[in-house]
From TrEMBL:
It comes from Cinchona calisaya. InterPro entries: At4g02000-like. This is CCHC-type domain-containing protein.
Amino acid sequence: MVALQSWMEGHPAPVNWSFADAVAAKSQLIALKEISQYKSEQAVFFSVDDIQHLSLPFKFALICKLSKVWIYLVDLPVVFFYKIALFSISQLVCNPLKINKSTAIVNQPNVTRFCIECDSTKELPSRVWVGKVNASFWQSISYDDLHSYCDTCNKVGHLSVDCHLNSLPTVQQLQHEAPIQPQQ
């Protein structure tokens, strides 16, 4: 317990601690909350200080906004099917990761397919400009299983306008409700 208290006071954490240990230790430092009522339902409320205290272990946690996406380039000239050419084209969109086997062996010469790692928060282009010696062209891009990213809850799978957190009452709305009475 002494190690825990010294860590809470700003001293280094014990060497063998995991992130889960730190979270468990922090959550034990607030008192158990009383059961209250909100709109005739049981509820529990946390103060701003409680939330700030509980969020300390997550201060340096990373939220990954990167996702892997497969790209299709339809009717790309066969001369560009080499990995170096495809990666050069794909870096116009995002970071190239790999090409699929059919593209590598030119099994389907009308479609190239490769995987990129992209930032889910950014809009991806629908086409790129490919220049060659005698003629340049716009190459259209199709994305397979492109996921939406929500800036509200930081989750992949839906947009902010569809986020369930937008329908939750705000602190100001809760404060204008009838006073909350703890259960006896």
